[in-house]
């Protein structure tokens, strides 16, 4: 960590700060620059809060050199983490995993029909929301517990592990019982109470990137879950918020090489929420595979124009199958299977 | 609501859609444009989900004409809402309210010392976090219940109502008991489970704008709380996330006239989190008052360089007092008191 | 175009506005909504300025239905435009074109060495800046005319058409003489004087997307060039500015299907400027090809650590060759060559 | 400047880099950290290009400690610069200057009428565009030279110095002849050819902030002009581009204290372009004055609903006068006049 202090800082203040850090077990290296005094703080600085240092009126700037995350950091864990979901493996050089399903579970029959399509098309897991984060209180909020039970029924019939979004700590027992992967949605990426609670769960966590969160903040949210004891975290990019209006969000595929460079955890891509438009899902799916993603999560609906939420971005089953077939060929080119 | 359909849409599809809306009680007006067919849907469209309509492959675009919020909408509630917090009034043409206090409660003694300073400087309420949303799991997470109890002690001694952030539904009883205003933080602005829970509380809610949320989404989050039965919502702008690096966030003061135009609810400004730098707090506070804000919430600390969080943006008591004194003069110019 | 007027608008005002549009040859359709009056304006609305209509105090909102561009619009020109650069074709189902070369031309010898490498690796064209847009006036500003002449020398020796950035109208004659493709940089995307001047040139134009420009604004800038008479415009995405700090910019690959849907012009991707980091160039290049890009423009340097600008994002020749080899395999999977 | 190198960097590489900097006259200080080697480079680093250093594969990160600007830097020029425009002074503790006028000059008569209104209301200078940067090539592009001549006529009649936007180097002679302040628009803030040309002019320059430019980039653009010899630069904030849709741009008033802290140049605010809506202009004007702005530039039109551009954001003269009257009272509170 580098601390820049104003040239006018009194010597006594410099000595005081130096002593404080030394007392905490850090080594200090002072550089007397032209217009500033610069300190290097040597040691494990993850516990130092840079905004606290900025409270000192003589401090001009604080720059962190080492990453603020440890458990997620590839520097200390060089080999890839492979997450196991009922035998389906995500990460490393494993098969690229495709998760398909509706935005919301709308009933038993339609869900089973979609699940059948997902299975036949080559999907590996089933997604479906039983609790839905909706901008409007007047919009459909999800079926709740019955929605999760229909997901279990679909798993039973088609052998697809199920993924669903957890929105509240008080549903944790239910999610432990029913789902195979617990999704934390973009809007809850920094709901730290929920992250801590999920850190105690036994199920793998699909951690979506927040609307406007940096990659570093995203890794820090994974660190919360891992620090709680649950090391099975799967990152999921779903687009970030920008000024652009032709897409719902801006899909940031550069996260793929970055997450793989900085962490050892798997990363999958959600082209449906990212673009908000089914017409762009295929090309973004193929791009994600070419860039090295460990999986895709795609909205599939048998009748998008009747979907209760996000029909605009759902693929029909035939198109979902076509994405998988084309994607598989690209996977082979880069030395993976799908 | 305006629906634009492709020129190539078959007549049967147009008729089907028309019938569907008419069956739900809406009136339809069709415009045959040069390159598109455009429908106007007339009636209360708040319950229509535009993303569902976009699932129809013939639909090119859906535009909402009427705002998607009702209870917060000034159109249906022209007079200002004034929120009463233990006799202190926020909103309308009432006195501008200044809330001061530390980012985190760090102990009984330091809190009482700060509270005394806030009171003497002319502050009307006390802020202080007992549960802290921190990006890092290794950073100080707040004192919890004792923190709230110290706040109550301060209220008792200095007569300042207290504001503190609620991060989790399972603390709701505690907050009902201890605090006077429940703060929902920026990172939880779209934690819809929490919003619903807070909608059942009897205490007023200070609703911070999310890092990257539009004003419309922010009003919709207030609508969640109001739809739950709690109509005492106070908006709080605390800066949005942009590309700029010299400030922690970008303070968007234009929300003041916009919130007042579109809703009947009060709005206050947090210049501390917005700028992240105590040096800019005074000028942004004065600007907020001049622009018509109903209040300010400012971080105050007796020893910012020792603050356990966000020392960088905290004012010492003397400077806090100076902000209030200058602010009061501006308040008088625009016909209010402070 | 849809105009929403306040319910309180006097009848006389509605009639006046209606008459004005009818006098200009438009048809009008009025929808009397619950809380608003909504007009549809039917006809070619590209010449109507919506911000002028907003000047009317009774107007609540103006929404454009038809796109504001004509010449670039695929609706009126369904077949793909293929741009011919000295026999190399860009667009349609033609071979994917790879452009390589240094950020800045640094001298004759180093340029020729890089050009040789680009040619041998399979590059189709050579890039190199002779005039450089630099944030700092104290940074290297480019070699100017000699830089362009070295580019010509390289073309002569290796048969690679050359691309270079034009920053000022007064260099247009020079660019007509020396270069094969005129690049308009991100910072000049809305330098309308320059766009108009380039619209009179005979050389194809590579139009980079601005730092924070919407896709619609980008297409409008192409429309400027085309309206001037030069229809050979190639779009180039180079990342947009967001809050993310781990990359220089955020590469928005969703522009590929969008530009192809809305326009008939070719689009290429610049992964070097987008990520700002050579380590991410390969994965983003492969992603761009998989998503359907018509080409890539990649920074190549024989000694990136000595590059006078942007060494951080330049590939060495061997790695550039590896990108082309892997990319070609992906191109084959999606039915193209490279 | 701080350079962080990977722990694995060979000793020979560290020595080579050290020698290179020492040969250029810098002092070096090396910190051997836990996971990195960190260098401090001591001396005037404005000429070092950090992106060049990043080209070295062993370099992990480069952080600039000292600001990259010199002439604009308050560190080296502590007293305020006051720009003199035909006797009207901008900056320091001088009277706050209000510039009013139409977005575009639309003809002699309407301009003179507006100028009369601006003068009578208490405006100090007249704005008006003769060359207009328009997103669409089909929109009104400005009257050109006659527009400037009408501005001169207005100056003659009402004694108001005139401000107009320069879009192209080839109009520089015309602007030297006709205008009193040369405006560089947001879209040309990084048109470096134009900045260099303006650096040779004798007239003061109003430098608008770019749509998505950081404050540092903005100061660097001022540095371009100053490095060319023209030290009379006035910053003008006009809102930045964000995700928010209820305003045209997001007005960033925190630039006022920041520009004053880091530079010695004056700063004025454009609330009209920032908000895009005349209804928000008054409150943002008052906020800007309270925050310490040296001036305002406001769009004024005698008939906004007939304005050829940006009627939506123009004030009628009476309202402009009301802004000045209220603003003056706030100016008095903070110890200035207006």
Describe the structure.
Chain A has an eight-stranded parallel beta barrel with strand order 7-8-9-10-11-12-13-14, surrounded by six helices. Chain A has a four-stranded antiparallel beta sheet with strand order 2-3-1-4. In chain A, a hairpin with a 3-residue loop joins strand 2 and strand 3 (36-42). The first copy, chain A, starts with a strand and ends in a 5-residue tail after the last helix. Chain A has eleven helices and 14 strands. In chain A, helix 10 (281-290) runs parallel beside helix 11 (317-333). Chain A has two domains: 2-63, 2-Layer Sandwich (Alpha-Beta Plaits), CATH 3.30.70; 83-333, TIM Barrel (Alpha-Beta Barrel), CATH 3.20.20.70. Chain A is an alpha/beta fold. Chains in contact: A-B, A-C, A-D, B-C, B-D, C-D.
CATH topology of the largest domain in chain A: TIM Barrel
Main-sheet strand order of chain A equals 7-8-9-10-11-12-13-14
Spans of at least 5 consecutive residues with low confidence of chain A: none
Total E-strand runs of chain A: 14
DSSP helix fraction of chain A? 25-40%
- The gyration radius over C-alpha positions of chain A equals 23 Å
Pair with the biggest interface: C-D, 57 and 58 residues
Q: Order of SSEs of chain A, N→C?
A: EHEEHEEEEHEHEHEHEHEHEHHEH
Say what oligomer this is: homotetramer
Q: Kindly, what is the distance between the CA atoms of the first and last residues of chain A, rounded to a whole number of angstroms?
A: 42 Å
How many structural units, i.e. domains of chain A?
A: 2
CATH H level of the largest domain in chain A: which superfamily? Aldolase class I
Structural class of chain A: alpha/beta
Tell me the overall shape of chain A: elongated
Beta fraction of chain A = 15-25%
């Amino acid at each position: 960590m580098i601390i820049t202090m104003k040239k006018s800082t009194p010597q006594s203040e410099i000595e005081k700060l130096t002593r404080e850090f030394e007392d905490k077990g850090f080594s200090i290296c002072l550089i007397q620059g032209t217009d500033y005094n610069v300190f290097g703080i040597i040691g494990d600085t993850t516990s130092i809060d840079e905004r606290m240092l900025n409270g000192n009126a003589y401090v001009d700037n604080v720059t962190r050199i080492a990453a603020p995350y440890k458990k997620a950091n590839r520097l200390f864990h060089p080999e890839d983490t492979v997450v196991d979901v009922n035998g389906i493996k995500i990460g490393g050089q494993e098969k690229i995993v495709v998760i398909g399903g509706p935005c919301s579970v709308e009933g038993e029959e339609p869900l089973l029909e979609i699940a059948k399509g997902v299975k036949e098309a080559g999907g590996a897991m089933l997604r479906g929301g039983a609790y839905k984060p909706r901008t409007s209180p007047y919009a459909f909020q999800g079926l709740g517990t019955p929605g999760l039970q229909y997901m279990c029924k679909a798993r039973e019939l088609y052998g697809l592990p199920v993924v669903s979004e957890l929105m509240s700590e008080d549903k944790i027992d239910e999610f432990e019982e029913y789902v195979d992967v617990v999704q934390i949605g973009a809007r809850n990426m920094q709901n730290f109470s929920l992250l801590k609670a999920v850190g105690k769960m036994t199920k793998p966590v699909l951690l979506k990137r927040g609307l406007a969160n940096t990659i570093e903040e995203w890794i820090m949210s994974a660190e919360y879950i891992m620090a709680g004891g649950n090391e099975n975290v799967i990152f999921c990019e779903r687009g970030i918020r920008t000024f652009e209006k032709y897409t719902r969000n801006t899909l940031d595929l550069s996260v793929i090489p970055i997450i793989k460079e900085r962490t050892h955890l798997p990363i999958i891509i959600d082209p449906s929420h990212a673009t908000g438009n089914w017409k762009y899902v295929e090309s973004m799916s193929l791009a994600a595979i070419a860039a090295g993603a460990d999986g895709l999560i795609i909205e599939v609906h048998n009748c998008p124009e009747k979907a209760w939420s996000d029909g605009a971005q759902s693929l029909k089953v035939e198109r979902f199958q076509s994405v998988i077939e084309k994607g598989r060929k690209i996977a082979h080119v880069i030395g993976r299977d799908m």
